[in-house]
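Onboarding guide, step 5: your first structure request.
Type a short instruction followed by the sequence, for example:

Predict the 3D structure of this protein.
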Amino acid sequence: MTRPVERRPVEMSWFSALCDDDYEFLGVPDVELQSSWNHCRNIVLTADRYGFDNVLLPSGYALGIDNTVFAGGMAPLTDQIRLLLAVRMGELVVPQVARQMATLDQMLDGRLTINIISSDIPGETLESEPRYRRSTEIMYALRELLDGRALSFKGDFVDLDVEPPRQRTQSGRSPLFYFGGLSPAARDCAAAAADVFLTWPNTTDKVLEVKADMDERAAAYGRELKYGWRSHVIVRETEDEARAAAARLLSKLDAETGEAIKKQALDSASAGVAAQSALRDGSDEDGYVERHLWTGVGRARSGAGAAIVGNPDQVRTKIEELIDAGIDAFILSGYPHAAECDLFARHVLPAINHGKLDFEPSPIAAPS
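The system replies with structure tokens like these:
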């Protein structure tokens, strides 16, 4: 593989399938790949051993295992990798979340990051506007408490007059907030309070459009954002082998099973999911919307529904194209997750200039 021209460092992260999302054949359950402490631990340890910078721990209610408990268990077992913990806004009261996050960060020696989740919580449904209003208020409140400041705030969802917890993060500052969402309310929430805005896969021109819009929205709040890309990847020694692996992944999936899997998620009707469906609708008969961007994963997944597919140079080149478009962080996954982590780490990761995101986040103003 030809050594590329060195670009600015980006964060390279993997994904641990805590929500029953691991398959050899998409849509065909395999007891060996079901979410469990042992299986998900193995994925994280594989990513840690190979030098990935971060790993996403997703959150689900009906699916998989609890990610906060899992993160606590992984803290003493990992050496250098950060844990990107998905936290569902409104599921727990703010002071409790602040104390949990501070304690977890101590256990991880400062290696905690937070993925803000704004979908409905179990047993409750909210329209988009109030749901993201709730997230904005909670992010502001968490940032105040985790930065060690007393909180006195009365909003639509957060009404608190409380001192910060004695427990503090290792740095004394809040972990970074990663956030994704494409509706107008979601974008405004991210602009007001997130640090890293995550996009699901799309063509590069669409990524640039979203970034330009988010830059403008963040500037209106006097803030700046970093940008992340969340997708799957299938890398093999040749392009033909990679495409064959993609086809094999779908070879036992029927449409009814795929739709049932997608509807299990609490965010299955979101604007982001709709955008992934539109991307798939614009693909060719084999599911490719670009030569190396394959939408087949979205036939049985409500979230990130596309994969970068190709040989090592082709996958690296696509990632570099996205870096040049302004992406600062990548959260990748593949099926099965531990096996694809091994392939990507051996064939592509060494050719990418990467490291943990390290920047001073913009302040979050009290929601008005």
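Each response can be followed by summary notes, for example: Residues 11-236+306-351 form a domain with the TIM Barrel fold (CATH 3.20.20.30).
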